[in-house]
Amino acid sequence: xxxxxxxxxxxxxxxxxxxxxxxxxxxxxxxxxxxxxxxxxxxxxxxxxxxxxxxxxxxxxxxxxxxxxxxxxxxxxxxxxxxxxxxxxxxxxxxxxxxxxxxxxxxxxxxxxxxxxxxxxxxxxxxxxxxxxxxxxxxxxxxxxxxxxxxxxxxxxxxxxx
Length: 162
What we know:
The protein is of the alpha/beta class and about 160 residues long. The protein has a domain at about 85-160: Nucleotidyltransferase, domain 5 (2-Layer Sandwich). The protein contains five helices and seven strands, in the order ββααβββααβαβ. The chain has a five-stranded mixed β-sheet. Strands 1-2 form a two-stranded antiparallel sheet. The radius of gyration is 40 Å and the shape is elongated. The relative contact order is 0.11.
């Protein structure tokens, strides 16, 4: 027997016959037939619990439909003001600059009292442009903004421009 025609001691013809028999055996056996899906019955407790959950969610949706935002609309949205009320610079947590004047929160509120009263009557809040002093800490800026929020709607614009 020649080495060129044998593979691991078998000839090419014997290997081919073996592979053909393997494929024939696989083809004859065929894929196994699985029975179709059977009817599935859910336990009654699952269906009842889902129905109860739907009732609870429907009630929650109905409750939330009547809700409104607690935030008052801006006076610009209501047409009472045509622009921002003030351009305010935050110098520290308790000092604010408007133009060239420096105010505490009490002084600032006193200076714009008539505008705040008209906004309260109309059910709106004035918007202000808010800028911070370069070098101001985040904590001081945050404290200043929290001081202004009950009275104004501040729009942060970055550092004070010179």
